Please model this.
Amino acid sequence: MELRELELDEHKRSRVLRAQLRELYEDSIDAVKFGLPTDEIHAQIDLLTAELSELEEFKNEEYEGLEAPKKSGYKISGKKIGCCKHCEKEVFEGQKAPNSKEEGLFCNYYCRKLYRKRKDGEAQKNNRATNTI
Model:
């Protein structure tokens, strides 16, 4: 089989997987609507998503100069452990969250930094208010 035919087969496989995923998502929506269990549908969705991701990653690596995207540490994974003190987003145990024992739970370092600045600003404002006569 030529390289071109192999690429077309992968492209077709990718399209078929995407179509199957769309159907499964529609089935999931219908199941929720009618109060039916969705565990089996979600298991199939996870399998097809993993297969599609692997296929897409392999396809992207073929092109010189392109790298498959690295997985972010800020993706939702694991169980929910709380909400960010700054932006109120949910924080999950699989995230690369800063140390929650320091000042509390934050979804990322940016929110922690903004929270600290806000706290410092409030402290300075309160200090000024008590120092004036």
Q: What stands out?
A: The CA atoms of residues 57 and 69 lie 8 Å apart. The mean pLDDT is 76.
